[in-house]
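Contributing new records

If you add data, match the layout below exactly. Sequence lines come first and carry their own label; structure lines follow with theirs. Keep one chain per record. Anything else will be rejected by the validation script.
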Amino acid sequence: MSSARARSVNIVGAGLAGALLALLFARRGLRVSLYERRADPRQTQPEEGRSINLALAARGTRALERAGIMAAVRPLLIPMRGRMVHEPGGPPVLQPYGQRADEVIWSVGRAALNRVLIEAAVRHPDVAVHFGHTCVGVDVAAGRLQLRDAQAAVREVALAPTIATDGAGSVVRAALGRAGLLQSREDWLDHDYKELAIPAHGGRHVLEPEALHIWPRGGFMLIALPNLDGSFTATLFLPRQGAVSFAALAHPGAAREFFAREFPDVVPFMPELSAQFAAHPQGQLGTVHAVPWQVGGKVLLLGDAAHAIVPFHGQGMNAAFEDCTVLDGLLDEPRDWNGLFAQFEALRRANTEAIARMAVENYLEMRDAVRDAGFVRRKAIAMALERAFPGRFIPRYSMVMFHPEISYADALRRGEIQAGILGELDPGTGADFDPARAAALIEARLPALRAA
């Protein structure tokens, strides 16, 4: 078969991953047809209550730099240097993400970022973007991709190769499942989310702007990420059912009473709380598992379509962008699409399974562990060990967020070893840990990291 580099490609879904991948492929000389069910996002307003602000980290910025558009993205970003933890009855406390000046994550609006990516893609002569085109069928046997346009007319185009970047509710994944070509499941959390707004006051942020704000309350939490216009996007994560749940907040006035009890410091900044709570949709949270991701070099699932995760590690977009980077990098060597897709899945599956697990674990950390004195103490020990043993001991969160040269799978594996070391070193009091013992444990259990 001919080299993948000599072919045209369909991409279904012009969200963040699809638009980025179209740009990367076009820069290599591939002809890309990009199909999107929505209208052109540059000409419409984003759906209210559905954005969930995004956290751009090193894996994502590396992909944007590879595509040559980081300069256009940078004005959209607000640095977040740590978690600003709001405990009842006390002042908020910043827990830094890292200990170097560049160890920050970036708040970015999904719609604004998507517009930049779309604009960069459509400017390329080898990208044809078709808005208002919904995928309605995938016929692998006949080699046809079926699309319905904005006038409800159905047309077919040649299938191979098609890359599905159409999100967690992927139509392509569902079609392949119905045809018996893959198996998939969605593991739903028993917690849902609702997005709310904290408006600017006089054009300014009413909370510290360079932080991710979090109100951890054990079985639930509120978070808030800064926006460029001075507002914050707040998201409440709460059980679906139970005594403290979305179901318990169904009657008028219940949401404001709940916020006044649990998050009293933010209530004065949310004058439209009750109206927003009633109007904004309640979203579900889950993890997508699909096996396999590709069918005979004809169709590939990528990003959320293959491995959607819960948002609690801020890595859904970053993992999808890293998918794009890996797939684009595989084009450096001539191979057919079947070999390309198979190698991509082999390289990415263990890593996406690792970040899916870490994302769920991070929810428990964010809503509960950050309040624990032992957690804070072990975090301080971890930072001290990172300073003492650079290139050997790096906290798991830092490996995931700031070190794209370390795979998700390696971050999970090393993180488990490091957690064991921290458990043995933690004195359980304000006393210092034993540095000699730390050196011995790290030398015995934690291999040196390979150079990137």
